[in-house]
User: Fold these one by one.
Assistant:
Number 1:
Amino acid sequence: MADVTEQQVREALATVIVPGDGESLIALGMISGVAVKDRNVQFSIEIDPARAEEMEKVRIAAETAVNAVPDVLSVTAILTAESKSGQSGAPPSNAPGAGAPPRPGRKSGPAGITHIIAVASGKGGVGKSTTAVNLALALKQLGLKIGMLDADVFGPSQPRMLGISGRPESADGKILEPMENFGIKAMSIGFLVAEDQPVVWRGPMVMGALQQMLSDVNWGELDVLVVDMPPGTGDAQLTMAQNVPLAGAVIVSTPQDIALIDARKGLNMFRKVDVPVLGIIENMSLYICPNCGHEAHIFGHGGARTEADKLGVDFLGEIPLDIEIRTHADSGNPIVEAEPDGVHAAVYNKIATAVWEKLSGQTLDASRAAPKIVIE
């Protein structure tokens, strides 16, 4: 098969005429961010926010046109709204993928979702995504209807961790049906882009993608939508925190000082935009040798608990550094699902119980709460 070139993509887009304008997307200068990698194509369509709804048809037509180019494997087009000053304009609340910047006071989420929570970290490498998926599965074990939104556009992990492959379907060409496994509904850019393909988008394209994955998905009725946030405190995090009605945020950190510094930044970001912090989780808290039982604090121990006390937030629990947690996540069968009665699942279940009690304002029956964990 021959390589696909950007010129071929632009030639295909030159055949897509914008209704009301009478000219093509290319002639109107509406195409930006074209990226071609291993015959997978990505690009954005810059639009007037007021035309977001009608331009969704143009987006679909653009994807169809590029899909017709020989040897193209996949196409992902994103609507993004930018003003002439270079700053994104604010679309109406129902505009899909308009890529608006954060604007305090405007928060709307999909109907049918009772609570949306963010699982966040100030930096990468602390096991946030593994924690998020196991927390989601533990919430499901409480009898709740759970969804997972993988908001880490540049490093989506949830398709692999949830053991889901393939592309989402759409009955009307606009609203996507979420993928599903283990009773968890899920959406991720990883379902739309090949696993080994980098996403090389600018900020407005990322904002548009996040908006579409939240608003243009048939989530149905959910008790909790868990959002696996990107690491850090950049545009994507602020957009989610300010534009989405988050019921709360869970901060994940390892015990060492450098991770706690970044965790503190993430926590303070949520506080500044009036998102309640539900608590802090200390991941990779301790390591127990499977052969001799020796306990080692590789990254230190208790730092997150101390930090929670300093910041006046709840400490939700300690998760050990264990190869079983990692291997189950990598294989698409997370530990809470693979070993629901095991010691590690009980840790996540205890955390999920605390989170749900905070969200619902109800205390669960003792029979539903996770048992206490004693590691000897």
Note: The chain has eleven helices and 13 strands.
Number 2:
Amino acid sequence: MAWIYLLLAGAFEICFAIGLKYTEGFTRLWPSVLTALAAAISLWLLTQALRVIPVGTAYAIWTGIGAVGVATLGIVLFAESASPLRLACIALIVAGVIGLKLATPGG
């Protein structure tokens, strides 16, 4: 269950980071409220995962999920660069996340 919490925490981390773009500096009420809610949910889910998963592993995976998700959505939603080098770097983050999962005892 801890790994499910961690995956969901990563998903809400993506929502939080992308939501920041839509808050326009926290000048728009509802995007700001939803972004803050996503951040709170993400942190709560991360704390639940930390009951079982080592903090170094959980934090690295949480931030990795967020980084890959936000970079991918940046390409899709905001026409950010999808250069081969950028995609290769995103793939390296994915490889690191998978490696940490496989290297964690009981993972």
Note: Helices lie at 2-23, 29-49, 55-78, 84-103.
Number 3:
Amino acid sequence: MKLIYTHENKLLVENARNLLQMEGIETVMKNEFSSGAAGDLAPLDTWPELWLVDEIQLEKANALLEKMAEQAEGNDWRCNNCQEVNGAAFEVCWSCGSPA
């Protein structure tokens, strides 16, 4: 396994996991519930981590994550289904799951 993504915001890590999963790339999330240890551990050690199961898919996974990062620089969007405002990094509505 190889660490491919980490961020202090768990929602962004979950978004990355969902994006990769939709493309058939298997990942494992670690430190999912470690934020409660902040103070006892260094802050970086409590960030959620996304690990790639099959390193053969590394190039494809990195390309998808790079695309996600580029999209994050864009504008927020409003869901046509539930009217919730979503960050540019999200391809599906965090509230109802509808695509952008």
Note: The radius of gyration is 14 Å.
Number 4:
Amino acid sequence: MPDNPGDPAVTDEEYTSPDLAETTPEEDAVVAEGADAQVAEALAGDSEDGVAETAEADIDDSGELSDAEIQLAERTADLQRVTAEYANYRRRTERDRVGIGEAAKADVAASLLPIRDDLDLAEQHGDLNGPLKAVADKLDSVLAGLKVETFGAEGDEFDPSKHEAVQDASSGDDKAVGTVLRKGYRMGDRVLRTAMVVIADR
């Protein structure tokens, strides 16, 4: 055994782990190139996989987009149909509302006609004066506001749809209104009450 075992001159070379061993620049270059090649290969593989996945995604997306377009067309058609139905419903509702309003006015006006008949009789007997005359004027104002008009004057052409004949005193085919026994009333194109007349020749 040496006198001084710790003397560097007599000690064995220090053991160096292969992982920690120093390499030359040439060896480093070779290792780097190998590593770069492995990385490049791995990246190339990932890139190819990524391109394939992207292509598949595009195909899938393309198929889904086609389905979406079909669904959009169907929804658009449904919306257009619903919109048309709603527009028709609104027009029908408005027409019905106007018709109901006109029918209500006609009913009110028709219920006032007997009162107007009594006032006409009072006027024929000379009793339409004072407060009764004021009532007649107000009633006429209400009927005018409802656009109620009278028809059935003597000499008018006889029309079975507007005139109710109680006697036919005519001798020819050209018939006209003779004596008016009761006035007829209409509101616009609606006949509230036919005129009661005697038919005569024109």
Note: Residues 14-22, 42-60 have pLDDT under 50 and may be disordered.
